[in-house]
Amino acid sequence: MADPSHLQTIHTWESVRQGSGLDWRNQPEVFKRYPPGFPAVDLDRLPEIREFLHSCAGITARRTYPGGAYFLRVQPSAGALYPCELYLQARDLEGLADGIYHYEPLEQRLRLLHRLAAGEGIEAWTATPAPVRGALLLVSAISYRSSWKYGNRSFRYCLLDSGHLAGAVEAAAALHDRPFAIRTRLERDRIDAHFGFSPGELTMALLCCGEPGKGTVRPPAMNLPEVDGCGGVAARNRFIEDHYRRIGILSGCSPRTRRQPYFLRGTDLAQAIGTRRSIRAFTGRTMRRSEYEALLRAALLPVTTDCDEPVRLLAVVNRVDSLEPGIYDRLTCLRAGDLAGLAGYLCLEQRLAADSGVTFFFLSQGRQYLPLMLKAGLMGQRIYLAATALGLGCSGLGAFYDRETADFLDTEAMVLYAMAVGR
Questions:
Q1: Are residues 356 and 232 in the same domain?
Q2: Sheet harboring 332-336: ordered strands across?
Q3: What is the number of domains present in the chain?
Q4: Within-domain flag for 50
Q5: Based on the domain organization, do 218 and 102 belong to the same domain?
Q6: Domain range spanning residue 228?
Q7: Which of 39, 64, 131, 239 is most exposed by smallest CB count within 10 Å?
């Protein structure tokens, strides 16, 4: 059965043609800044930590337009709105005091929010309260940055964007030889309260890039003030707030603890992280079958998480050497035929889905909506990096006609996401 928030955020032909346009007077900022009373930590003197965090969530390009500029990061975001924020708990990281920090990607620095006392840690708000030696990264999403443009549908984008950020951290961990695991079983209400998050800043996941130790920790004795992350223009969205509280309560989770080697290494991985972009148009040239298979291998690697949910990939193969056009489950053709035009129509008449070599659709019948959407975003980040390493273009497509797409794919599952890859 589809999650209620998924059912209530579907696109139809009629719905995407409604709306009153954007309120440019209330466009949110995309950087959260803590006041100067919180000490700044210059990462230039800590090059290993600086490079690790830059690989996780750093800025890779600046684009200017009349009246302003926007910044591209190692991970994509719907509409380049970047709702996600990253917080670091450091324990036994060389050169950095044990504490809880906020990462400022534009300045490449940290703000110390709370110095950890002995025996404290945010691990206390997880299902496994043993101390972690190394880095713990907390991902939040400031919903108004996305809902300003996308309304209630932005709830999906906040989840997928958080998954992309988790995928970026997974890649950074592989590049910098650190552990990686996702924790979603969190006491979100307590984290939100102690971090001073407004109702619109949503705790998504905790990313473990350190080694668990013995014993348990107690919660940090901190009560941070609320700090606006939108430039003073945020408006509350009760739909998002209510569904966030509901999906944040997890039960009956199936953990996956065994981590497999990442699909990229060394220079290839570093270059892919630094040069990843969302393509605007494809040439329509054919992909190689080996490239398609490499994308599948990357996406379908197991995800190390405390709450695994099934996410299935179906592919509309448009132009892949030695594969007949049609709908595929991996290498099995489920329905043959030239379906490129229909795929483009279903993705809100976007040529990317029609001109691609392959357009992937992510499906799930899982019960836990938050972990499965995070997983879909993480898988999407892997496809981006694999495509970049292969010299292919890639674009995530979070907008599609939901019911028509499910009918087209002949599935009862939720359609979570689409991604177009090609030349």
A1: no
A2: 332-336, 326-329, 312-317, 358-364, 414-422, 393-397
A3: 2
A4: yes
A5: yes
A6: 21-247
A7: 64
- What's the gap between Cα 127 and its chain centre? 22
Distance CA(376)–CA(379), nearest Å, equals 5
Is residue 268 in some structural domain? no
Element (H, E) at 135: strand 132-142
Give how far the C-alpha of residue 278 lies from the chain's centroid of Cα atoms, to the nearest Å.
14
Q: How far out from the chain centre does Cα 243 lie?
A: 18
CA–CA–CA angle 255, 259, 263 (5° rounding): 130
* Sequence letter at residue 113: L
Higher pLDDT, 68 or 48: 48
pLDDT tens, residue by residue, 281-323? 999 999 999 999 999 999 999 999 999 999 999 999 999 999 9
Q: Do residues 63 and 170 share a domain?
A: yes
User: For residue 280, what are its two tokens?
Assistant: 């605007």
pLDDT at 20: 65
Residue 7 lies in a domain: no
What is the residue-wise DSSP string for 153-194? GHHHHHHHHHHHHHHHHHHHHHHTT---EEE--B-HHHHHHH
Q: What is the CATH number of the domain that holds 173?
A: 3.40.109.10
Q: 227, 247, 267: which is the final residue of a domain? A: 247
Ordered alpha helix ranges (H), 214-313:
238-247, 266-275, 289-299
Q: Rounded CA gap, 312 and 315, in Å?
A: 10
On whether both 42 and 160 belong to a single domain, the answer is yes
pLDDT in tens, 171-190: 999 999 999 999 999 999 99
Q: Report CA-CA distances (Å) from 246 to 192, 249, 368, 369, 378.
A: 15, 6, 10, 10, 22
Q: Which of 315, 330, 307 is nearest to 182 (CA)?
A: 307
Residue 198 sits in the same domain as residue 338 = no
Same domain, 142 and 181: yes
Query: Above 90 in pLDDT, residue 18?
Result: no
Pick the last residue of a domain from 191, 226, 247.
Answer: 247
* Integer angstrom CA distances of residue 200 from 8, 77, 108, 147, 242: 19, 18, 25, 10, 11
Q: Domain for residue 418, yes or no?
A: yes
Buried b (16+ CB within 10 A) or exposed e, 167-206: bbbbbbbbbbebebbbbbbbbbeebbebbebbbbbbbbbb
